[in-house]
Write a structure and sequence with these properties.
mainly beta
Amino acid sequence: MFNEIQKYKHSYIVTKDIADIIAGDAELSAMGVLKLSGICSDYSGNVFVTDEMQHVVIKITSYGQISILAGALGVSGDNGSEVVDNADARFNSPTGICSDKSGDLYICDTGNNQIRKISAIANKVGLVAGRADCTSGIENGDIAVARLNGPKGVVVDNSGFIYIADTLNHSIRIVRGSEILTIAGLNGTSGNHPTWVEQPGDFGIIGSDARFNSPQSLAVNASGYIFVADTKNYVIKRIDQAGWVRVFSGSGIFGDTLGDAETSRYRNIIACQIANKSNSVFFVDFYESGLSRIIKLDDVGIPYIRTSVDVSLTGNYYADITHDQSNNLIPIYGEYGEQSSSSSISSASSISSSSESSESSSVSSVSSVSSSSSSSSSSSSQSSQSSLSSQSSSTQSSGSSLSSSTEKARMIVEIKDSLGATMGTFTSDLNHDIGTAIVFNFDDNLTHEEFPTILTFSSFLPELACGTNATITTTWETSLGSTWNQETVWSSGDGYYFMPDSSLAVKLISITIDVC
């Protein structure tokens, strides 16, 4: 099976599957890795992953050294309530994993219905939650008697409280002192509450009245809000500090169209994570016959695609995500179904034109889109906005094998500075023929910005015989005069925004949109 851990530069959204390899397929395959499932990073830059099929926890150091941290490759089992050395630990299908401020790791030992802890200093593995006999159940109370049922998500907040997505119990649990309690949901009972119509104002409903359906992951931000991947309800729910639960993003309807927080549709939310510095919510939405998408939510739950891959075409998908302390996005890129055996962990390879060779050390190596806002001067954005003008023209797409038809399309591009202030909005001809490219030329109307410009796209594209995807190519120029292109495939109706992959001041030269 294919497994890969990738690394994308912070403050960028990936527009193509280009990434530095942190741990590649050849290395992982040589170790016998089969199915990477969960991922996290610590404050020292180490990355940790679980292998659900080989029952081990793997460590990748900041220098790229890969080793088995705990467990025995291919050997499942349990240690009851014993505290054992890492090498003597036995797991049964470990999935979710997280790190606390001390570097200790917490692992969902899913098949054993337990949460285990790996001590960073002592190199020992012990039992944190779940019965020593590994039985499943719904009981709360003292750690010795409380039971879990197939937990797949775990996270630790700044106060040291451990939160668990108790997947098969359809509930969210907390380890507080010597007790395990349910803070949201009813153990053993699935459902979907609240929905958008059931949550008055910003509060939602109290945790004991909330219902989930197979929640697989959860994350907690710096303010103490807990975000839950309510997997089979196709939504992200949020639990506040007082225990109120509300829908944060997702309509609750199976699908893949994106809109606002209330209308967006998801298919199978399998991972949820908070970016360390931006405090933004990221999650993985995966469906075996469609797209596997890494999505970022803004502060009101509106989704933006950061990167995606077509599972039906490639056989690959994103299994889980984390961020390192520099806010670099690090996903597991795995294989779904009967594909050739291979796996890896990666980070971004450089994209640059030949004219950029003299400044290659200064240009970011990641082809991507911004995942967090950078600071920039508001006066610069205001002056840029007042001077903006554009020319929209249509030219025959040189790479298209399709002739023009009577179908029409329109594309709207909004340009913002890195603080989100609108610098200009540009609309193509309303009666644009499908089969030709929409071109926006900006000439010298845009100045070089110290921080990259954000682009957002929206459109009015009909249902087309050739599909509803468009290829967007942006041409950028650095302050040193070199230019390069970035390309992404965009689906009509979805809102994307992205930035150039440059650490230098840049300006936008043109946008070409091949709508068919």
